[in-house]
Amino acid sequence: MLQIELNTAKGIALELLKTNAVQLSPDKLFTWASGIKSPIYCDNRRLLSYPESRSIIKDAFVRILTEKYSQADIIVGVATGGIAIGALAADVLQKPFAYVRSESKNHGMGNRIEGIVRQGQKVVVIEDLVSTGGSSIAAVEALREAGCEVLGMVAIFTYGLPIALENFEKNNCKLTTLSNYEILIEEAHSFKYVNPEDMEILRQWKSQF
Q: DSSP code of 111?
């Protein structure tokens, strides 16, 4: 997994905290869809409601896409969280945009990929959050099955769980994230979003994985 420069990652983490896109609750754990009990919950779609934060995230994506993936033919978001921010970045770069559903529609054309992608196109995938990496890799595989060359994925945030790192490595997909769990909890501590006594709980949470 690739990480952008530390100051940028810290700034992104602070935007996530300021907008409540990430919420920390060491004393009352959240339950993820996977059943995992966690002191952190992330809903990056909240960022879209804050123009300044949205622009900061968009600009960070544009910079990565320009520096690392200038050869990309098309930007593709992962539904639903990667659609809006991916489309914003694609608009700035004047690149085509499409998105991948979690599964094919059961009506109409039955599409899994919405928009126009062509065999042989070089694709960068945009994701809002990487937890276990399962749904992210499923989107990558759908694009590969459509004949695309996936150059890599760029995401706003990752918990950095070992299973996610394994999934990306096993499926030969580069992952770059704007920020991550370790940086975020340290920023939360620095700016008093959590009590000092809660930091040990937050630091130790990932050790179970």
A: -
